[in-house]
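Subject: for your reference before the review

Hello V.,

The reviewers asked for a structural picture of the protein, and I figured it would be easier to keep everything in one thread rather than splitting it across files. Below is the amino acid sequence we used in the manuscript, unchanged from the supplementary table.
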Amino acid sequence: MPQRIDLQPHGNAIKAQEMARYMKNRFPFLGINKPERHALIKPLLKHSQSWTPRQLSAEVLYYYGLPEREYQYLAIDLVQANVKRVTLADWERCYFDLLDQKAWWDSVDSLRKPLADLLLQNPDQLAHVVQLLMNDASLWKRRVAITVQLQYKEKTNKELLQQSIEASLTINEFFIQKAIGWALRDYSKHNPQWVRQFMAEHSLSALAAREGSKYL
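And here is what came back from the structure prediction:
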């Protein structure tokens, strides 16, 4: 079993209260900010690259299951540190489920990043993943389906972007409508004509329309 790290001794009670308040008191925090956390876990991330895929997923699940939010961030950092080794099969076996565990925008959007990196390197897998997530009952998985192509720029698959948005267009959830606007706004930097046409042809919520048209 890989040696595990204990972040508890590095906590700060005052910072923990501030961080918990920022996250609407949904999760307990140790009070370790991002730069400090990264410095503490740097050796662990390096060692993780020698673990087997099963060891990696076991450690990710272990840390993700601990109470304090910094441990969920650590678990996601482990996935990101091994992004070149993690496969779609690993996501289907383990990591997709994390999108619905202790879920909030911070964890979901952070988990999206290694998935997006994987799909950018394996575009033949993009359609399968987007269609899988966009039809899920989970609003968080639908959010990832919509936003997974953020910053793909000219490599964005317009058809899949449209499908993912249309699948959730009428869902009256802030994090879904925000995601729709976010995805449209991001793509408008590279293809404003397509975004204008999409917005003209679809009835968007006020939030999605406001966010999506920011750069038009």
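For the response letter, the relevant points are probably these. The longest helix spans residues 105-121. Residues 123-215 form a domain with the Serine Threonine Protein Phosphatase 5, Tetratricopeptide repeat fold (CATH 1.25.40.290).

Happy to draft the paragraph if you're swamped.

O.
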